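Quick note —
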Amino acid sequence: MEGEGLAAEFLSLELELCAQLKEVKFPPPVSYVYNPLEYAWEPHRCYVQKYCSSPKEILFLGMNPGPFGMAQTGVPFGEVSAVRDWLGVSGAVGRPEREHPRRPVLGWACGRSEVSGARFWGLLRSLCGLAGAPTFFARCFVHNLCPLAFLDGAGRNLTPADLPREVREQLLVICEASLRRWVAALGVATVVGVGKVAEGRARRALGDGVKVLGIPHPSPRNPNANRGWGKEATELLRELGVVTLTMDG
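Predicted structure written out below.
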């Protein structure tokens, strides 16, 4: 455990999860597995220590890293400019042990925007206004259910839903057990799944003990997200009572 307090406990739980996931073998179509909690541990630790030092009411839960987001910065929905400029996260980023030549980890030098992250953090930035990120993180946190990114032989991004059923269930059962520990450690009362898959797995993992809600995923792979995702997400968050936690007024 690094340091003391809630952030250190959270980081320790993540390291335990990573150790468990090392035992999982991923068959085709998976050819490459990136774990940013290994090679991008410094910025990830910076993110957790900066924004997860106190209990949280709401946990926003994504599924797993994207190749141009968390895979580059170690932060969920980790579009480089949002992580660097709005979240104020920094730290050295290394490289995975095995790296697809078409999907290199360039860290802060990555010039390609991660659309989901730009939309997600951009919406929160607009809601928080001049108060900035601390307004949101005072009562909320953002995390991914699974810390691993998957690529096929051609370098195409794979989500857990793309994995063979048996290994997918093995992976997610481990991650769901870890989610229960995260929620207990943070004192979370509500989990907001970003996308149907994350929402569904959170419901399965947490049962009736924690309120689970959902917002659409901002990925361009979601056709509805390409038609005003920010407005739709804001309206839904307002209905759910979440917007009042982030807005100034």
